[in-house]
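Query structure, 135 tokens:
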């Protein structure tokens, strides 16, 4: 009895002899080429860097108002991010964790000095205390 798998995988078999238009798919062993592009998209000049559209404000009073608004928002965001850093540092240093990290490792990961890491861990523990009483 002939080997049916050998015939099915043989590109010179009946499927290949039938030609590219015959059957549901392309003949085995033959690859289709991608369609050629008729044009290349234009590479636009990169837009000049913009900072919250402050460059386009001509009125100095409006510029002061808007830039002050942004500075306050960034300051608040930085303070909030610092609080999250402190909480994370306190959690990583928690001695009840089996994988607790020493202060020096936390300092290295956060690009802090070891003294600053110790202060941040303590600050984070203070931030976590009220949460524990709520649980």
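Result returned for the query:
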């Amino acid at each position: 009895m002939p080997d049916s798998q050998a015939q099915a995988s043989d590109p010179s078999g009946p499927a290949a002899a039938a030609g590219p238009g015959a059957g549901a798919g392309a003949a085995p062993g033959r690859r289709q080429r991608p369609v050629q592009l008729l044009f290349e998209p234009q590479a636009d000049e990169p837009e000049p860097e913009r900072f919250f559209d402050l460059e386009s404000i001509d009125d100095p009073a409006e510029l002061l108002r808007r830039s002050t608004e942004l500075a306050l928002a960034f300051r608040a965001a930085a303070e909030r991010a610092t609080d999250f850093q402190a909480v994370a540092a306190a959690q990583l240093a928690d001695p009840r964790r089996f994988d607790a990290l020493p202060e020096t490792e936390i300092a290295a990961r956060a690009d802090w000095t070891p003294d600053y890491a110790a202060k941040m861990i303590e600050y984070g523990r203070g931030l976590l205390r009220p949460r524990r009483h709520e649980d």
